[in-house]
Amino acid sequence: xxxxxxxxxxxxxxxxxxxxxxxxxxxxxxxxxxxxxxxxxxxxxxxxxxxxxxxxxxxxxxxxxxxxxxxxxxxxxxxxxxxxxxxxxxxxxxxxxxxxxxxxxxxxxxxxxxxxxxxxxxxxxxxxxxxxxxxxxxxxxxxxxxxxxxxxxxxxxxxxxxxxxxxxxxxxxxxxxxxxxxxxxxxxxxxxxxxxxxxxxxxxxxxxxxxxxxxxxxxxxxxxxxxxxxxxxxxxxxxxxxxxxxxxxxxxxxxxxxxxxxxxxxxxxxxxxxxxxxxxxxxxxxxxxxxxxxxxxxxxxxxxxxxxxxxxxxxxxxxxxxxxxxxxxxxxxxxxxxxxxxxxxxxxxxxxxxxxxxxxxxxxxxxxxxxxxxxxxxxxxxxxxxxxxxxxxxxxxxxxxxxxxxxxxxxxxxxxxxxxxxxxxxxxxxxxxxxxxxxxxxxxxxxxxxxxxxxxxxxxxxxxxxxxxxxxxxxxxxxxxxxxxxxxxxxxxxxxxxxxxxxxxxxxxxxxxxxxxxxxxxxxxxxxx
Amino acid sequence: xxxxxxxxxxxxxxxxxxxxxxxxxxxxxxxxxxxxxxxxxxxxxxxxxxxxxxxxxxxxxxxxxxxxxxxxxxxxxxxxxxxxxxxxxxxxxxxxxxxxxxxxxxxx
Lengths: 529, 108
What we know:
The complex is a heterodimer. By secondary structure, chain A is an alpha/beta fold.
């Protein structure tokens, strides 16, 4: 024994080589400190003073202490005082705010998507250094000296300043009691808005306003007034929106006019109080179904988007369909919905990794090609083999249509559920095309968007297996004594084509498809570039 | 008679072996949810796995392979059902399981 200083420990169990690299929820990290031994966990061990039979544990009453780190780091260290122990926190949370904190040291800013490397790289593992006299947790608490030495790339701090700026503006509005939050024309891009930007807004409750006005009934005086928040984000450069924005329950007006949005998150449907939604002049090709559902109660401004269109249909054919659809008993007086389903496009099927397995591919925006004939829609059920250019890579086995989610999908769902309690972590999409990285980026996107649900079976899912576009139309019926009158002008296709609202629906399995609802899918024209 | 042996119907069960040597005896039909295993066991290919009905996975640990096998049974039991219950996967093996799913081609 050449190393008598160190107490002997039982040998670490033999672990397979893959164990250290991929270890479940414990994130791999890269530290430039040189370790003398392989490290299997980034989490510090936690043990209490009960584990240490040292005499000074019994000298000052029986206060159980918690230590963090390797136990042999503490064996020669002075026992921490009781005050220090009481305010001990897990250092990870404290440090992760550090990069984003303002110069005066406030740490109210949540970690942004770009700075997550600090979140996971700061918890240094228990090292066996003996040069220190302080316990490991004390060294790692965010002291001001350490803060200065932290690597802080210039772009991250600049971005953090912009994130902070947006939050500050929202805070100012809350503090001054303004219900209109005006963030227009600020050249905001995706990095300026993080999921936690809107956290305060979603928690906002107005203090009841007590008026000594005798005209008001007493019961109304002390009621909570619902705040009516107007959020104006127009003329910025946003391409996506965090799902947390839509948990602002009292949002009544949302203006996203003049951004670069290509898609709206399905979480938009949570905004039940939204009365006005301005999404004009974006790059939307379709709307989430949740927006379609909102239409009867919400004013939606849509112009200036390049929405999917439908190939022109002959007028006679349409008139026939129209009468079959709207002359029957379907138009009931009691039906409050004024949005009608008219038809759908073919279904695109993918596997969990995102490879397209059907012969139909949804047209990309701006692409003129790939205008599939409607007859080429492929029905996946159990007997057909899937064709496609990826046949070699996806193993030429018959793909069974089943409602059972794939193993990768189940993993992804489990990861989403587990990450919901934590701050949002942006897993970099990376160039690697393997299933692991693609699933991880799908998980992070799902967390950012606030989840999505299958159009058919309503199950929450991560990766869509089937996608298709449905077309809806908004009709304003006038009611007469004879019943509901459908505007005649909409029975000609020319007019209908202009009012169609495309909605992208997603199914969670190859069985969650709309077959049987419409005899023949429509042919979709990709949006003009 | 040995010529008949190769054409005899293969056993209903196959054995999957993890890196530590844990063996899982699984219904052959259930393993077909992985295209990789299905190919390994294809009698037309005359591979050692197909002959012995035994697949060894040196990359997959026992904990992960156990979950994979559980998924296979889950898939086999519910593949034709309309109402599929959720399957729980502990988060700490998710990434390893994803790697295994990638290897086994279980993204369908």
